[in-house]
Amino acid sequence: MPLLTLSSLARAACVGLMMALTAPAFAQVNDGRSVGDASTGQAIELTARPALVLAGSAEWEDGFAKLNKAFADLRTALDRANLKPSGRPLAVFIDTDDQGFKFQAMIPLEAAPAATPSFPASIKLGETPTGKTMKFEHRSAYDDIDSTYEAITAYLDEKGIEAKPMFVEQYLNDVTSADDTSLQVDIYVFVK
What we know:
This protein is of the alpha+beta class. The protein has helices at 6-13, 63-80, 145-159, and strands spanning 42-46, 50-59, 90-96, 100-108, 123-127, 131-139, 163-171, 184-191. The protein has one domain: Multidrug-efflux Transporter 1 Regulator Bmrr, Chain A (Alpha-Beta Barrel), CATH 3.20.80. It has 3 helices and 8 strands. β3 (90-96) and β4 (100-108) form a beta hairpin. α1 runs antiparallel to α3 (145-159).
C-alpha cells in the first residue's frame, strides 16, 4: 500500500465538506494544546460506531459538490428511516490520486437499528473507521487547510510515523463559505 503523501493529503483537503449534525462522532480530548494546533498530533484509538455510509468517487474539480450531495442523501435517508444521528459528519478518504479520490461519506448513528430500514441502493448501514490514528486540528478558513496538511506531513516525517492511505475529516461546525475563519475540522490520519 502506498504511503499517504502531502500531495494526497492536500488534494483531499481541498474537497472537504463543512456539514454538521449533532455531537462529535469521536471523543474530543482537551489536552492543553492551543486551539488549531496542527504542528503536533495526539494519538487516538478510534472505535467503530454504527453509521449510515455512502461510498463514492469524484474528480478533484467536482469533489465538493459530490460530497455535498452525499451528505444531503444521507440526511434524507436518516430522516426517512427515523434514525437518530450521534455525531458530526465524516468524510473518509480511502484512496487519492492525481485525478481524484474515493470516499465514504458517513453520519454516525445513536444506535444500529434493530431491523434494517429500506435505503436507496447507494446507502448502507456500516461503521465508522477504527484503528490507531494521529489527530490534528484545523481551526481556520478552509481556504487555509493546505497549510494544516503541510504541518501534518512535516510532523509525521519528523517523528518517523508511517501513515496509512486513509484519513478522516470530521467537521465540527457549519460554515457557509470556504473563507469563514470559524471553521473547525479534526483530521484523523491512520498510522501503521
